[in-house]
Specification:
By secondary structure, this protein is mostly helical. The chain has eleven helices and no strands.
Length: about 260
């Protein structure tokens, strides 16, 4: 369990930085952002897989594809929501995903859940809303997008747990990034916006931070039960609030 906690700390920190940059790049078409976020991680994952001689096609191909499309849907909807609502609000709302993950784990994986865990989920989510708040009225479109993304994120956590240690974490990530690169690339062809200056660096950095976010999240869910790992996603609120403080001071202009 200690390893799972460490993995989730690294994962949530990586995703926090990625989300901050995505908000800054929200003027780009959604699937162009998906493409850049995916291709960077794909290059890193594929290179390491080839270097280590890991079977790139994996073993649980059907589950790997399910996880990839569920992840792509969650990622795309979340990125879309950032066009309508602040990143802090979107991240706060996405914290519902561990609740969906727990629900799916109980139904599908037959994991046991204590009554007190449901109470802790409720307290944790209410605490997130209390700390972060909604900052005024929440755009309905953004709200629906991020809530739907949360459902698919919860499904992703369970699919990773279902895959278990039958596949290397990098293979799981690589499947997801390959699907994201292909779909994102195809859907952005007719609506491609050419990056300028530092935007190239920011777009490419999405793949870097996203790679480590996905890799260590996968390791965490492979190391422990979904019902134990999913609540650790709430660690991200600490990092999000910290970056939010820096943005108020004028160092980061993404919130």
């Amino acid at each position: 369990m200690k390893k799972a906690i460490l993995y989730m700390v690294i994962s949530t920190f990586s995703f926090t930085l990625m989300n901050a940059f995505v908000k800054y790049l929200s003027h780009f078409p959604t699937f162009e952002v998906v493409f850049f976020r995916s291709i960077g991680s794909l290059v890193l994952a594929t290179s390491y897989i080839i270097y280590k001689g890991i079977p790139i096609m994996g073993n649980n191909k059907r589950l790997l594809l399910y996880r990839s499309f569920a992840g792509l849907t969650a990622m795309s909807l979340f990125f879309m929501s950032l066009k309508y609502i602040p990143v802090g609000t979107a991240v706060s709302l996405r914290y519902i995903s561990p609740i969906f993950a727990t629900f799916f784990a109980v139904l599908w994986l037959k994991e046991k859940l204590r009554s007190v865990q449901w109470l802790l989920f409720l307290i944790a989510f209410c605490g997130v809303l209390f700390i972060k708040g909604f900052g005024g009225a929440v755009d309905t479109t953004g709200l629906l997008l991020v809530l739907t993304a949360s459902v698919f994120s919860g499904l992703v956590y369970v699919l990773i747990r279902k895959i278990g240690k039958g596949d290397h974490p990098l293979v799981v990530v690589n499947y997801f990034m390959f699907i994201g690169t292909v779909v994102g690339g195809l859907l952005s062809i007719n609506n491609f916006s050419t990056p300028m200056g530092q935007e190239w660096l920011l777009l490419l950095s999405l793949g870097f931070f996203g790679f480590f976010g996905q890799l260590f999240m996968t390791k965490a869910f492979q190391a422990a039960k979904t019902t134990m790992v999913a609540p650790l996603k709430y660690i991200e609120v600490i990092f999000t609030l910290t970056i939010g403080v820096f943005s108020v001071w004028g160092y980061i202009h993404v919130f």
